[in-house]
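Researcher: I've got a protein sequence and the SMILES for magnesium ion. Could you write out the 3D structure of the bound complex as structure tokens? I'd like something to compare against our soaking experiments later this week.
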Amino acid sequence: MFERFKPTWMLNSIYSLTPADLKRHGIKAILTDLDNTLIAWNQPQANNDQLRNWLAMMKKANISVIVVSNNNHHRLKKFAQPLGTDFVARAMKPFGFGVKKAKKRLNLTDDQLVLVGDQLLTDIAAANCTNIRSILVKPLVASDAWNTKINRLLEKVVRHYLLKHKMLDDEWRNKLNG
Ligand SMILES: [Mg+2]
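Model: Sure. Here is the predicted complex with magnesium ion in place.
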């Protein structure tokens, strides 16, 4: 049962991800989590250059980016609209609803997609249940929203199991291996 929480890769940050890295693995679109993956969970809007530069770099390389988040439409719109980024709100991860919605818009094959997120229990599970590869990233800030805190407790147990069975790296990497 723990197999469903196993990420394909682990990265220290989504901002380490480059078009070259993705193209090497045949990936043409990124489905990304919002809170603690792209911006801190308690930060309302994106006003940082790192994010804007990273999105511009992906756009230039023809790599689509869709934000797929469990958060509400209001927060997603506030974040995505100024950036001109597509999004799916209330994605209901670990279930596949939001990911499937994003897939329909992209019209790519499953092996051309990757999901990036900071939680094994929601993000990585949603990727695995929709048959796409995934990247677990280190949460941007150490704190979490109250509902995420509960997930983090369960995640500790899952993480421990995965590490013990060599299904998880014990270090964060700077680029995709393989
Ligand atoms: Mg998150």
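Model: DSSP finds six helices and six strands in the chain. The domain at 2-164 is CATH 3.40.50.1000 (Rossmann fold).
Researcher: Great, I'll pass this along to the crystallography team.
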